Amino acid sequence: MQALTTLNINANHIGAVGAQYLADVLRNNTTLATLNLSNNEILAVGAQHLAGGLKNNKTLTTLDLRCNQIRDAGAQYLADVLRNNTTLTTLNINTNHIGAVGAQYLADVLRNNNTLTTLDLKWNEVGDGGVQHLADGLLNNTTLTTLDLYGNYIGAVGAQHLVDVLRNNKTLTTLHFFGNHIEYELMVEIDNFIERNNRVTKD
């Protein structure tokens, strides 16, 4: 029998209780690499259960928790597990009502995490304050290549934080920031840095 490597239970209303059952499985599972739990209303409690299950997991590389209303508390639980996790490369937590506080938890992890390459935060509420935290976290990060901040109430102040960090960060090659309130000149400046990073990567 072939081992299960991908599990997609998108939009099944499993809630926090269902997330707890899955977390129990993740504690000992040694084959699952991709888990899609999007649109399941797991809330912050469900994120807490999953974080517990992932604490010692060594195989999961992709976790999709879109549209689960995990909010800042859920982001904190996930950030806590990412401090020591060495396998998760892709985390999708878009559309989860995550604000500046949740962004700060994630930013603290980015300072030292050497595994995560893709972080999807689109359609959240990180705002300028959250972007400042994320920019601080990316100052010395050399792993994250893709960051999605589409539709996050980011204005000129937040955009300037992105510009400032991109002066030195040569790793980020994909940055989605449309759907915000960023002036054209700042958008061009951000794009120029991203293009530079892509050239550096190819060289």
TrEMBL record:
SMART domains: LRR_RI. InterPro entries: Leu-rich_rpt, LRR-containing_regulator, LRR_dom_sf. It comes from the Eukaryota. The keyword Repeat applies. Keywords: Repeat. The keyword Repeat applies. SUPFAM superfamilies: RNI-like. Gene3D superfamilies: Ribonuclease Inhibitor. This is Uncharacterized protein.
